[in-house]
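so im writing up the methods section and need the Ubiquitin 3 binding protein But2 C-terminal domain-containing protein record in one place, dumping it here so i stop losing it
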Amino acid sequence: MDASYLTSPTSIPIIRKGQYNNLKRPSPFIGLEKLRRPSPPEPRTLLNYPEVIAQIDAQYPKKVFDDDPKRYMSHTGYVSPEDRRVAISPSISTIVQFRAIDFGMEQCELKLMIPANTTASAGGSFLVSIHRLDQRQPIDTKSLSFSSSPRKLTTVANVKITPGVPVTWKETFHCAWDDVLTFEIECSDEVGFESDSCSMEWWQNKEDDDPTHGMSSMAFNFLPPW
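--- predicted struct ---
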């Protein structure tokens, strides 16, 4: 028997745990691209909260923040609520990461909505910069720090924050199914805005928050193609 077609065990690549996120995910939407779709597309939206919300600190470049800050021990074991902290200050910025999760929803609308009573501290107005990052794979929050954070690709927007004034901002991006999109929110260094007054924080809870009703939140709306 000719066994030359068999793969030698030594030739099988070893995938380590830290490399799982680099593997391509199989599509669960096999054959849907062959179906006739309405033209023009029907208006639909799908709300998607970030899979990752994590802080980095320029003042402490090696610091790794806790990625499960509200976990607690119950009588059945550890419970990890999905609440995640969004915070910015002159040295701290927040990285958020989304994944496009549905077929045929190729327009991603990034939204930032903050009600008037939580827009800022007692200081004056400041700018928040939102950057697109060079990161198309899931971030390892167990090792994320300022030193290891992805590089900035582009500045998406500078959003003005004024005490007592609600914020409703959005930007639309093209996205294909399973795309990973990563952004960083930080205090802007634009001339004319004092960074010392830049301070903002909230806890994002996707079960309670609803961006359509002015809750403090960042989310993606997935829309049909235009």
